[in-house]
Design goal:
- With about 180 residues, this protein is an alpha+beta fold.
- The chain folds into two domains: about 5-95, Alpha-Beta Plaits (2-Layer Sandwich); about 110-184.
- Helices cover about 50% and strands about 15% of the residues.
- A hairpin with a 5-residue loop joins strand 2 (about 30) and strand 3 (about 40).
Length: about 180
């Protein structure tokens, strides 16, 4: 298991208050980078981690709000590419599917091209076409199987693999929309 990275852009730059909150979590460490972004490393990352609790605590105790990007735990994913985008977003916790939508609507062509190339190299064109075919078939595996001329189990296997590795749930509206916007 690899460590999880989370990048934060704080609205009022009160790193000491945030550090006090982070110290309450055994598996988290926070570092203030030179560019003013806070880099949090979660050494005990698991699938049930809820970073919204940290944000709620920061807002309640210190009136501190921030934008956070939870970097996908994908091999060789360049999360730092998204850092300039963080300062443009409304406060909240953003997963990769959230940032894909924001990035497409704010016309960040360089990031979009990076992600398309990254996902094609990570999964191959067959899996990407399967994901897009599934979404275009109203997220119905049976319809997608007919339209893509493949067995439904193959589609489900590819979707499950894509979701597990990319952390984009294309079986949900948000994840499906993110992939269609990215690859259109």
């Amino acid at each position: 298991m690899r460590n999880r990275k989370i990048y934060l852009a704080m609205k009022n730059n009160d790193f000491e208050a945030l550090r006090l909150i982070i110290e309450g979590y055994e598996t988290l460490t926070a570092t203030l980078r030179e560019d003013g972004i806070v880099e949090i490393t979660d050494f005990g990352f698991n699938e049930t981690a809820d970073y919204m609790d940290i944000r709620e605590l920061a807002m309640q105790e210190f009136y501190l709000d921030f934008v956070a990007f939870v970097v996908p735990n994908c091999p060789d994913f360049d999360g730092e590419l998204f850092l300039p985008l963080l300062r443009q977003l409304n406060p909240g916790i953003y997963q990769i599917s959230d940032l894909i939508v924001e990035m497409v609507f704010t016309n960040h062509i360089e990031i979009k091209n990076y992600l398309k190339k990254y996902y094609y190299s990570l999964f191959g064109p067959e899996t990407i076409e399967t994901v897009l075919g599934f979404v275009k078939a109203n997220q119905n595996a049976c319809q997608a199987a007919k339209q893509l001329y493949m067995h439904r189990n193959t589609i489900n296997y590819r979707l499950d693999h894509f979701i597990m590795v990319s952390e984009i749930n294309v079986r949900s509206f948000k994840g499906g929309m993110a992939m269609v916007l990215l690859f259109r």
